[in-house]
Amino acid sequence: MATTSGTTHPTGPTGEADDPPKPRMTRRQRARLSRGIQYAVLVIVVAVIAFRADWGNLQQAFFNTEVIGRMFPRVLIVALVNTLLYTALAFVFGLLLGIVIALMRLSSVGPYRWLASAYVELFRGLPALLVLFFVAYGIPNAFPGFTLPFLVMVTVGLGLTAAAYMSETIRAGIQAVPRGQVEAARTLGMSPARTMVTIVLPQAFRIVIPPLTNEIILLTKDSSLVYVLGVTAGQVELTKFSRDMLNTTVNSTPLLIGGLLYLCITLPLSQLVRRLEIRHAKAR
C-alpha cells in the first residue's frame, strides 16, 4: 500500500495506484438515455420517409380533390347514414336477443341452458358473412314465397352474431351482481322475474356498458358485409360506396375517405369506452 501525506491509496499488483472506479448510470439516467435513443430513431425514420416519399403522387392517388368532390354529399347522406342505421338496428336486435340468451344460460331449466349454449357456440364460431348469406338466401329457399325486407335481413343477419357475444357479456355482468342483493329482494317478497328486472339487470348493465360499447364498434365494421345482400344505390354503406367509387374513378381516394369516416364513428366510441372504464374503476 502506498501512502502520501497520511492518505492511503489502493495499489495494484505492480505497486502503482489504481484508478478510482467510474460512477455507474442510475436507473433513471439509463431510462432517459433509452427514451432519447428511441426518439432519435423515430425522428430519423420520419425524416427519411418525408424526404423520400413522392408526395405529389400520393396526393393524386389518395387525396384527389376532384374525386372527393364527386363523392360528396352522397357519401354522407347515403353511405354514412346507412352505416349508422345498419349498426343501430343490429345492435338493438342483438342486445334484446342477447339478454334472452343470457337469461337462458343462467336458467335452472336444463333444456334452456343447452339451447342457449348451443346458440352461443354456433354463432360465435360462424363468420358473420356466412350468417348474413344464410339469412338472405337460406330462409327464402327453406320457405318458398317468404321474403324478408332488406332492413330486416340486415338486422337479423348482423344481430344474430352480435347476440352471441353480447349474451356472454351480459351473463358475466349478471353474475357480477352480489348474490346478497338478490337474496334481500327475495326476502322482501319480490318474484324472481321482478328481482331480475328491477335489481339485477340495472346493476349488470352498469358493469357491462364498456364491453357493449366495444360491440357497437365491431358492428360498425361488420356493416361492410351487407354487400352480400345485393344492395341498391340507396342502400350502400361506406365500404360498398367507396368500392364503387374506386371502380368508377380508378383512384384510391374513395377508400381513404371511407376509412376516415369509419374513424369518425369508431374513435369517439373508443374514447367513450375508456371514460366508462375509468369511471367504473373509480366507482369500485
From TrEMBL:
What membrane topology is annotated for this entry? Answer: Multi-pass membrane protein
Q: Which InterPro entries match?
A: AA_ABC_transptr_permease_3TM, ArtM/GltK/GlnP/TcyL/YhdX-like, MetI-like, MetI-like_sf
| Compartments (UniProt record) | Cell membrane
Q: GO cellular component annotations, sorted alphabetically?
A: ATP-binding cassette (ABC) transporter complex
Any one Pfam family match given in the protein's UniProt record, by short name: BPD_transp_1
GO MF term (any one): transmembrane transporter activity
Region ranges (Disordered): 1-27
Residue ranges of every copy of the ABC transmembrane type-1 domain listed in the record = 80-273
Q: Which GO terms describe its biological process?
A: amino acid transport
CDD domains on file: TM_PBP2
Which segments show compositional bias classed as Low complexity? 1-15
Q: Provide the primary localization.
A: membrane
Key words of the record: Amino-acid transport, Cell membrane, Membrane, Transmembrane, Transmembrane helix, Transport
Segments traversing the membrane: 37-55, 75-101, 122-140, 146-166, 255-274
Q: Which PANTHER family match?
A: L-CYSTINE TRANSPORT SYSTEM PERMEASE PROTEIN TCYL, MEMBRANE COMPONENT OF AMINO ACID ABC TRANSPORTER
Per the similarity annotation, which family is this? Belongs to the binding-protein-dependent transport system permease family.
Q: What is the protein name given in its UniProt record?
A: Amino acid ABC transporter permease
